[in-house]
Amino acid sequence: MSAEETLKQIAAEVSVCTDCALHKTRKKSVPGEGPADSEIMFIGEGPGVNENEQGRPFVGAAGNFLNQLLAQAGLKREDVWIGNVVKCRPPDNRDPLPEELAACDVYLERQIAAINPKIIVTLGRFSMGKFMPGAKISAVHGQMRKIGNRFVIPMFHPAAALHNVNIKPQILADFAKLPQLLDVARKELARMTPVQAAAEEPKEDPKQLSLF
Ligand code: URA
Ligand code: SF4
To answer: What is the position in ligand 2's atom list of the atom closest to the CA of 14?
Structure first.
């Protein structure tokens, strides 16, 4: 199956998924969207009210701000993959529960494997927590780390930045660094031999993270 077909298959499974309680209150599931060969994946938290209506990620106020941040970084929204750690809306925008995150993680794992991005940008603490358990967003935001054979950049959540005037300049500055970080990631990955890349694949230990 091609990566594109795999993503379609995952979206079809998500639309009928009943693996956690969030399926009971969803209108539309939000599997995520973007090209199957995206170099960058942006991973948020979960669908909000607008996303639940439309079945698409980041289409409300936070989405408008994300579009602005992407444009500022010289990225076209249609060139990157955008999705979430949970695919169905948590009622009243509450935090996703640990069992919901655990149940939904299989889909995100399969999406990452299919796309095989160079960079994963996490938006907010739930998505950061998947890759950097225990990290503090205030300490690590905007800093790229190599994890296995790709790079992860934790960013503040665009919605948090919209509601907090102190965070807004920080997220703007972090996104402004993206082109430069993408350059570093491309060069670093091109330098790695296939053998090195394979050897670095299954790395879960946060102690092995290198800080850029
Ligand atoms: N916030 C998120 O985390 N994800 C969305 O898709 C929309 C808002
Ligand atoms: Fe399934 Fe994920 Fe939706 Fe829960 S949030 S019902 S695990 S697709």
So the answer is: 8
Q: Which pairing describes strands 150-155 and 145-147: parallel, antiparallel, or unpaired? A: antiparallel
- Quickly list H helices, 16-150: 49-54, 61-72, 98-115, 125-131, 137-140
d(CA 211, CA 159) in angstroms, rounded, equals: 26
Encoding tokens for residue 137?
């967003």
CB of 32 closer than 6 angstroms to any ligand 1 atom: no
Start-to-end C-alpha separation, the chain = 35
Tokens of residue 210, six digits? 């290198």
Give the per-residue pLDDT at 193.
67
Residues contacting 169, CB < 8 A, separation 6+? none
DSSP, res 121: E
pLDDT at 33: 98
- For the CA of 84, the closest atom of ligand 1 is 4
Question: pLDDT tier at 207 (50, 70, 90 boundaries)?
Answer: very low
109 SS3 class:
helix
Give the mean pLDDT of 143-163.
96
- Check whether 196 has a pLDDT greater than 90: no
Residue 192 pLDDT level (bands cut at 50, 70, 90): confident
What residue ranges line ligand 2, CB within 6 angstroms?
14, 17-20, 22-23, 29, 86-88, 100, 103-104
